[in-house]
Structure formats: structure tokens, C-alpha cells
Design brief:
Largest sheet of chain A: 7 strands, mixed
Number of domains of chain B: 1
CATH topology of chain B: Immunoglobulin-like
CATH class of chain B: Mainly Beta
Mean pLDDT of chain B: 91
Strand content of chain A: over 45%
Largest sheet of chain B: 6 strands, mixed
Number of helices of chain A: 0
Low-confidence stretches of chain B: none
Helix content of chain B: under 10%
Structural class of chain B: mainly beta
CATH class of chain A: Mainly Beta
Low-confidence stretches of chain A: none
Oligomer: heterodimer
CATH topology of chain A: Immunoglobulin-like
Structural class of chain A: mainly beta
Mean pLDDT of chain A: 93
CATH architecture of chain A: Sandwich
Largest interface: A-B, 25 and 26 residues
Distance between the termini of chain A: 37 Å
Number of helices of chain B: 0
């Protein structure tokens, strides 16, 4: 039973470019949450998707957008990349009724903006 | 803005020592507090604590919530080198937002 799968594992982009990160949730999970973890910091909540809609959003600009597909997988898009967007991006999936207790994190995508 | 504050930020101990990690949170829309262990990339779940304040235990690890002090502690007894990791606490809100602290980096030396 596969856990949460994220791709790619590493990515280098140039300032101003756009990037798409992907997440496949754990089997049986229907909710996907995205987090940004800068070096030396805890993860910061970006947004959560459930039933293909953004259910909750953290304090991130509109440059950060997402999508959830009918198979529950999700994408995170970041436009007009800034140097400060360099971070580990974590995806967590869960089965909605279980709430936070059922969160399973992926290994993340390390994004470097140069 | 609600904050989750962890202390200490880093800690170095020797095998066999007992450690106590601290986490303070803010009460607005509180739902639960969670502890995670992050060794490389993916945080792994340790405990979830609610306002009932019941202590949770799993082997050498234990945690309790003090709802009067708005804080939680994570205890690790008889530490091993495999306990070396970043320990994160997170406050889970009623609106499903989850806010993490900066973490405590624990290093256990042989």
C-alpha cells in the first residue's frame, strides 16, 4: 500500500518562472493539504483540498494555487517564483472524518529558486 | 496571529538521558495538539492531544497537554541515537488549519 507520493523530489527554477508540484495521496484518503517548510522552520499551511475544492487557505499570496483531481491527487502551482519560495514543499493526505490524526506526509519536493 | 512556540530550539544529549520538549499554543479555535517526528523529510505522527488532557504514552515517549497553561510537553526517556530528529508540535484548529512550531532539533550522542 503506497503512502503519499510527491514528485519531483528536487527541482531548480529561475526567479520569475512557474512551477507545478504533484502529490498522490495514500490509498483511501480523500483530503490533501500542502505545506511549505523553509530551512530551520516548521511547516506552514498553504491550503487544503477536499472534493476538488479548496476548503481552507493559509496566509499565502495568490501566486500559490492548487487543484485536486477526481482521483484525489493534487497539484500545487507557484507563479512568478521568488528567491524566498525556496523550501521543502510537503503534501499530507488524510481521510476527512479522521481529521489531523490521520495525516500522512509525503517526503516532499525540495524547490530551489535561483 | 496565533502562534505555536517550541523550546528549546535545539538540544544535545547522550544516550540514556531523559529529555523534555516544550510547546505552547494559543487557544483560539483550538481543536487538538499534535506531535510529529521529522527525521529526514516526511514528518511522522507521534501523538494527538485534546483538551481532555489525558497523557499519551508509547514506549519511551509520552506527552501531556496542560490546558490551563496552554502548553504541552513531550518526554523521551532512555534516549537512543535513533531518537535524533526534529520534533514538531502543531495546533489543529476547528477550521482544519494546522499551525506548526519551528521544531526542536534533538541530537542524541552515543
Amino acid at each position: 500500500d503506497a503512502g503519499v507520493t510527491q514528485s519531483p523530489t528536487h527541482l531548480i527554477k529561475t526567479r520569475g518562472q512557474q512551477v507545478t508540484l504533484r502529490c498522490s495521496p495514500k490509498s483511501g484518503h480523500d483530503t490533501v493539504s500542502w505545506y511549505q517548510q523553509a530551512l530551520g522552520q516548521g511547516p506552514q499551511f498553504i491550503f487544503q483540498y477536499y472534493e476538488e475544492e479548496e476548503r481552507q487557505r493559509g496566509n499565502f499570496p495568490d501566486r500559490f494555487s492548487g487543484h485536486q483531481f477526481p482521483n484525489y491527487s493534487s497539484e500545487l502551482n507557484v507563479n512568478a517564483l521568488l528567491l524566498g519560495d525556496s523550501a521543502l514543499y510537503l503534501c499530507a493526505s488524510s481521510f476527512s472524518p479522521q481529521g489531523a490524526r490521520g495525516y500522512t506526509f509525503g517526503s516532499g519536493t525540495r524547490l530551489t529558486v535561483v | 496571529e496565533d502562534k505555536v512556540v517550541q523550546s528549546p530550539l535545539s538540544l544535545v544529549v547522550h544516550e540514556g538521558d531523559t529529555v523534555t520538549l516544550n510547546c505552547s499554543y494559543e487557544v483560539t479555535n483550538f481543536r487538538s495538539l499534535l506531535w510529529y517526528k521529522q527525521e529526514k523529510k516526511a514528518p511522522t505522527f507521534l501523538f494527538m492531544l485534546t483538551s481532555s488532557g489525558i497523557e499519551k504514552k508509547s514506549g519511551r515517549l509520552s506527552s501531556i497537554l496542560d490546558k490551563k497553561e496552554l502548553s504541552s510537553i513531550l518526554n523521551i526517556t532512555a534516549t537512543q541515537t535513533g531518537d535524533s530528529a526534529i520534533y514538531l508540535c502543531a495546533e489543529h484548529f476547528m477550521n482544519n488549519d494546522m499551525r506548526f512550531g519551528a521544531g526542536t532539533r534533538l541530537t542524541v550522542k552515543p
